[in-house]
Amino acid sequence: MMTNFEKAKKVYESMEIPEQLPNVIDQAFVRASSRRRIAWYRPVLSAAAAVCILFVALLNLSSTFASAMAEVPVLGNVAKVLTFRSYSIETDSEWITVNQPSIAGTGNTELEKRVNREIQEKIDAIVADARQEAKQNREEAIAQGQDPTEWMPVILDITYEIKSSNEKTLSFVIHKTETAASAYTQQIFYNLELSSGKDLTLEDVLGPDYKEIANQAIQETIDQRIAEDPVQWPYFVPTPDMPDEGFQGITDDQKFYIDGSGNVVISFDEYEIGPGSMGIQNFTVGKSLV
Fold this sequence. Notes:
- This protein has helices at 4-14, 20-33, 42-61, 63-70, 76-79, 109-143, 202-206, 210-228, and strands spanning 81-90, 94-103, 154-165, 169-179, 183-193, 256-258, 263-268, 281-287.
- By secondary structure, the protein is an alpha+beta fold.
- It folds into three domains: 1-79, no CATH class; 82-198, 2-Layer Sandwich (Heat Shock Protein 90), CATH 3.30.565; 202-287, Actin, Chain A, domain 4.
- A five-stranded mixed sheet has the order 1-2-3-4-5.
- The two termini are 35 Å apart.
């Protein structure tokens, strides 16, 4: 009996390479070559990029290949979140790179339509806002006498990361990183129950006492980290002048995800509970009940 991997391999080997694919690869390398890279690892990156571009392009350009790959046990979880759209915009005002995810193979068509529509709307809005702001900032700088050749474009990078995928749930995050004077990353999480098509909440995955469970686990972790190395973990601490500083408990719309081991992980964006230099802060608070 032919295995799922052999089926996918057979589909791949019998497939005609789409006419768009060479252009996709050429354009990707043209964009990559326009940015400075360290010489010694360029060949390695080029080879890896070629494989990734080929795989992603085939997933997007051939529904047959995508369906076959979704059945492969090892790659099935990865193929549930595909790169639906990938593009770059480079002008004097902004450098924008977008890798837009799309969910598929969940067995819930309505869920896929809803989430994919939401993702596209959110990313389109983020890009439009960034472009408008970058254009306005450049015009204002030039009006104030700044040399246009010295203007640093706003850099926007949108990527995604799969946190976990199984027969019950799918958890992934979209990263929006914007760089002007400094870099700042924000996160958009999706935690989905595949059978019902609902967005999972912290109450769903931790139970009715989710706030108490999460707050206790986070505070204990913060205290432990500070005790072990206060220099490495300079979390904000409340003071008489700033009593609301630091961790004050999770919010009603707190960001979280489910990791590959079924753990619920609370996530804070940069500057939320510590200096921006600490980056995004994650805390494992318990096992998911879903």
